[in-house]
Structures are given as C-alpha cells and as structure tokens.
Amino acid sequence: MRVGCITIILFFCLNIFLLGQSKNNTLPSDTTYKLNEFVVTGTRYGIDVKHMPMTISVINRSDIEKTHEQSLLPILTEQVPGFFSTSRGILGYGVSTGAAGGMSLRGIGGTPTTGLLVLIDGHPQYMGLMGHPIADAYQTMLADKVEVLRGPASTLYGSNAMGGVINIVTRKNKVDGIKNNLRLGYGSYNTLITEVANSIRKGKFNSTVTASYNRSDGHRKDMEFEQNGGYLKLGYDINSKWNVFADINITHFNASNPGNIETPIYDNDSRITRGMTSLSLDNKYSITSGSFKFFYNWGRHKINDGYGVGEDPLDYRFNAKDAMFGITWYQNIHLWEESNLIAGFDYQNFGGKAWNYFNVDKHKEEISDKVEDDIAGYLDFRHTFAKIITINAGIRLDHHSHTGTEWVPQGGVSLQLPDNIDMKATVSKGFRNPTIRELYMFLPANPELLPERLWNYELSFSQSIMDAALSYGINLFYINGDNMIQTLSVDGRPLNINTGKVENWGVEASSIFKINPTWRLSANYSWIRMMFPILATPEHKSYAGVDFSKGKWNISSGLQYINGLFTEIGSELKENFLLLNVRGSFQFHKVANFYIKGENLLAQRYEINRGYPMPKTTIITGINLSF
Alpha helix (H) ranges present in 392-448? Predict the structure, then answer.
C-alpha cells in the first residue's frame, strides 16, 4: 500500500514535469498568471519570495474559500509539505487532556505546540502559562492569506519559532466599496457552521468585521463542541506615507472530551475564552519602511478534568488566567541599490495565574502565579548582486528573564538563474525557552531547565515555466538539535530535564500545473527521516489535487496519504491512511452559491491521537452569499 501510493504521487509529479518541458504545450494567449509572490513573514517587509533563502508556502484567500473549511489547520496540512496537525473529530480541537490541534513542521513543534510560532499580522499568539497556541482560535474568517515559513525563524521572531512560523495576514478591502459575505452550512453529526463578514473601504478608512457560530455533537458520545467568534479591524491612511490600524479578536469555545476509547472519561469539559488586540502604526517611504506595534493577548480557562470508570467526580475545577503584552518595532532601510538592512526590537511580558477551585468550601489552591519578560534586538542584511545572487545574514540578541541571553545567527544565499530557476541555501539556528508550565507547574516542573536549541541546513531548487503555468520545487533539509525537554523518571518521580535530541533530515517537493483557466493540478510530498521518533509526525505525507472551474461550477478533489505517523512513543505505534476529500460549489445566483464537501469518502478507519478514532465519511452542505 505504501509503495503503491507513493509511486502514484511521484509518477503524477513526474508527468507534470514532463508536460512542462514539452515545447508544444502552450497556454491560450488571453491567459495570464502571477509570476512573483510577495511575502512579509521572512523579512518583516514585502519582498519577492525568490530573493529569500528560506522556504515559504503561501495560501491565498481564493484557496482558503474554495475549501469551505472553518479552521485553517486542515488546509495547511493538505497544502504545505512538511506540515502536519493533529485532529480528533469533525469539529474542534479542544485543550488539555485529549486535545488535538498540535502542529509541527519537519517534525518540530511538539504536542503541545511550543516549538512552532503562530502569528497574526506579525505578532505572536500563545498562551502565557503553557506557551503554546490555541488551535481553535485560528479560523478561516480571519485570513486574507497565510504564509508558512518552513525552518527556524528565531532570528526575526525569537523563541518558539524554532521549527518555523505560521503568519495569518488578516483581511481588508483593497479598493473602495462594501463587501458582505454570509456562510451557512450543516451536515454530519448535527454539525452547524455559520459565518458573516463585512468589509468597507471608503477613501482613507477601511474596516473588517466578522462573526461566527459553530457547533457539533461529534462522532462519539460526550464529544460536543461549540464555538463563538468575532473579529474587528479598523484602519486609516493618515497620508501616503503613514497608516494606522487596530483590531480585536475574541473566541470562546466549549469542548468535551470522552477520553481514550479504552479508558473513557466522564465530565471532562473545557470552557475557554481567548482574546487578542493590537495597534499598529506603519510607514512606507521610498528608502525606508517599518512598523511600530502594541499587542495584548489574554485568556480565561475553566476545565473539569473529569473522572474515570469506578472513580468519583472531582470536587474542584482547574482555572487559569493568562496574558501577554508586547511591543514590536522594526525599520527597513534601503541602504543603496539592491541592499536592505532591517533593525528591530521586541519586548514581551507574559504569564498568569493557575489554581484549583473547590466547589464545596469555595477555596482556591494555587498552582502557579508567575510572570516573565523577554527583550531582544536584531539586524538582518540583504544584498542582491547583478540581480542574480542575493545574500542574507542576520543576528539576534535575545534576553529572557529566567534563562538568560541567547545569540541567534542566520545566513543564506539565493540564485536567480535563467529559465526562471531559483536555487537557495540557508543555515539557521532555532531556539525555544522553557514555558512557565515546564518550569513551575505540576509535578514534573523543573526551574533549572535551559532553552532547547537546534540548527537547520537547507538546499532548495524551484522553477516556473510556460509563463508560470507550471511551477515545481524540491527541498533538502537536515536538522540537528539538543537540550530538548523531556519528562523522565528521576528518583522515582517525573521530572522535566534537558536530555532529548532531535535529528531529522528529509525531502519536500511540490508542483502546480495550471493547464488552462478551467483545470489545475497540484501535488506535494514530504519525507522525514527521524533518528529519534517524534510523536504525531508522519514519515511520509503526500497530496494530489485536481481543481475544475468553469462558468458557475467549482469542483476540487484531493487525495492525501499519510504513512508512518507516530501515535505513541515507546511502543512506536504507527498509523497509515489514505483520505479522499471532494469539495464543490454551484453559482445559482449572482450573489449566491450552493456548496457541498465530503471528507474521508473512502471511509478509512484511522487514529491521529492515540485512542481517538476519527470519523468515517462526513458531509457538510450549505450556502454562501456575497453582495
């Protein structure tokens, strides 16, 4: 099964390549395609991705909309080679025991995800105590596009960017006018998806407002999920050089966990509220551009840890409040022709309180009350010689109030060769400071922990031909790190210690062939060779998709194959599965279209979280209104 599916995918990619090399294949003269993709994640300012030594995947709004997904994570899992996220059901990821939503790039990230950084418009998103992002907060309604930087980005973004960065660039109107969108969907297991969005641009003012309500009974008993979310963004162009915007995003969800099928849990319910707000002042001159940002993230968690068979219900509830305040400043200076220098400064203050609240006598039992600081400065230099060779070098000095000072270098080179060939090489360091949970909370806590560190070495080749109708690329990477934090038994008790190692190397490949305005083929594949097994990381991940768009019809079909997914370390249990998903829409009115999506149409039996079987075939159908 494994060899057959991998062969099919590779054969598919090979045929795309051969099609592109044929001199007789041409596109209609009225068909145009975007040659260059400008990104901000790897530089803090907009730059053509071909001039960057790092590898970045970009998922645009049009790609997001056609999936009809509520969460961004399954979209990234399909379309970004090397990226994987865990799941446990049809809707919702949850937190604490039995939670999913763990993310990794090239095997780096963790469960929970403390080694992979999520950003919204460039500022970090993670819980102040636990140090990881909350997957249920990252909904498609927020995103204009998502940029995924594969490999360490600690030089620009510091701790937690050890495995890479996911930057959610939020929506806004680019031209004057008013746009309204409404989405309603209903399907398997009494699942309801709703979303409304309004965006306005009038002269110098722009705004975006979105709201959503989603719920599901889940495919297992006691697996209900309910979520409310809202987002508001206001922007104003002060003049041609300066603009300001502020935003706020609030998500509240209730999630139930039935436990492992072998050891069920009762009343394991979570009530989670997450919020984010920011204020940004941006400038853009001919020789310099930059931004000054304030951001504040907060959360309120109430969790009933539940009880097992033969046990009594708990008489207490876990409670936590956390917050993170930060300031980010950076300025890009155009030193001379084809040369840029970025200087930046970051400050973060994060932490919170955690306690058990007892129901009978109403008293609190404190678990943790800690706050820490991180302050950093960085420089990043980029120069292009003769429009062919671009060199990049960066350095960060990062000081954490508990673990001390960390130097973080990065360097790379990219070549822009004839026939739209790009070749890149990069060497970068990633690091992660221990979280407050690992240092001070619960039995394994160890205040003597040091930062995790790794080095990433990467080579890549990519080419676009046939007026960019066909593009393909391949990456080779090697990751070596130590000081990884693991929980081991020391003197008869569990303890977090810096004893783990990581050594991963592998290959990533991707291709897109836009045959004509009606048909598009896409494929990606990643192989990770792990010298030390990593939980929730597949050895092989491949995806092949076909998109059809003509007149009122839009149909896409994707086949994803996962092989060698570690679901348990020690016994080294692995899962292999093949998923077929189909999504389609029909424009039956100028402002309305009907959509339907079917997932796991092959009705595969599989697990991603150990003991949490995934649902078989699920169907969601609904309507989109745009006016």
Answer: 436-440
Query: Residue ranges of the domains in the chain?
Result: 2-626
Find tokens 């960019």 and name the residue.
468
Q: What are the two backbone dihedrals, phi and then psi, of residue 26, each rounded to the nearest 5 degrees?
A: -130, 160
Residues 6+ apart with CB under 8 A from 361: none
Per-residue pLDDT, 172: 84
Tokens of 617: 């075939």
Cα–Cα distance between 356 and 304 in angstroms, integer? Answer: 10
Asked if 146 contacts 64 with a C-beta cutoff of 8 angstroms, the reply is: yes
| H or E, element range at 227 | strand 225-237
Q: Please name the amino acid found at residue 557.
A: S
Structure tokens at 547: 């998109």
The token pair that represents 181 in the structure block:
């969108």
- State the CB neighbour count (10 A cutoff) for residue 19: 15
pLDDT digits (tens, 9 = 90+) for 480-534: 999 999 999 898 899 999 999 999 999 999 999 999 999 999 999 999 999 999 9
479 SS3 class? strand
pLDDT at 53: 86
Largest CA-CA distance found in the chain, in angstroms, rounded: 81
Instruction: Give the pLDDT score at 36.
Output: 58
- As a whole number, the mean pLDDT across the chain is 91
Sign of CA dihedral 64, 68, 70, 76: negative
Beta carbons of 150 and 460 less than 8 angstroms apart: no
Please give the Cα distance from 396 to 154 (Å, whole number): 8
Comparing CA positions, the residue from 514, 121, 510, 537 lying closest to residue 291 is 121
Residue 24 has pLDDT above 50, yes or no: no
What's the first-to-final CA gap in the chain, in angstroms? 47
- 2-626 — its CATH code? 2.40.170.20
DSSP state of 538: -
DSSP letter for each residue of 375-399: EEEEEEEEEEETTTEEEEEEEEEEE
Q: Determine how many CB atoms are found less than 10 A away from the CB of residue 367.
A: 18
